[in-house]
Amino acid sequence: MSFHLIDTHCHFDFPPFIGAETESLQNAQAAGVRQLIVPAVTADRFQGVVTLAKNHPQVFAALGLHPIYVSQHNDADLELLDSWLSSRDTKMVAVGEIGLDLYIDQPQFERQQRLLRAQFALAKRENLPVILHSRRSHDQLAAMLRQTQLPATGVVHGFAGSLSQAQAFVKLGFAIGVGGTISYERAQKTRNVMAQLPLSSLLLETDAPDMPLQGFQGQPNRPERAAAVFDVLCELRSETPEQIATALLENTRRIFSLPA
């Protein structure tokens, strides 16, 4: 039985998808993955992501400045983001991918925080949800979210922290992104977190072409593999696949205001 699945985090504006969009979307559709949200990572990618959403009914856009490119971003990029968001159409569903990263060399953490605060202000003004990146920075990110009190919340994507860190985000109204990490037996901590969180707090994602699943290491990840992530999630949880699929769909539509 094929469910209606949504890949809430797919970098569809990167290879291997460039020039193969129609075929890639057909493959995803065949696996039950019927819609994708594509978050931008740098200002020079905004136009491409918006165009993908315009050209493909099943693709939705999010625009933001990713923390791992902190040394590239500047004030002009923030102004560009501001103008795209203020003149957006219904296919632009979030501000993202934004967040904090203490894993990279030379994180320039104060600058990351300043950029994030500026993007939170835009999300707040536009009443848009946020797609959040967080590596080794969950506690700092949760503190910033408490301070900001975003009206439309969002998702902490690719989550691999502790249960208590996940619960802190859930308490603030944020969803947790479930990706290919759970396909690895050794990722017991993350698997346990996804098994224990309330179903109403989970979203499905791939982070394609990144975060390959078990058995696909060294290959680009693809949106159709959201179906394999879903299968693993069903093994980890006590609810039926029907209940899980329904909840994931409802959660995604609620957070991102996607059309039915």
Automatic annotation (TrEMBL):
Belongs to the metallo-dependent hydrolases superfamily. TatD-type hydrolase family. A divalent metal cation 2 binds at H133, H157. This is Metal-dependent hydrolase. It comes from the Bacteria. Keywords: Hydrolase, Metal-binding. GO terms for molecular function: hydrolase activity, acting on ester bonds; metal ion binding. A divalent metal cation 1 binds at H9, H11, E97, D207. GO terms for cellular component: cytosol. The keyword Transcription does not apply.
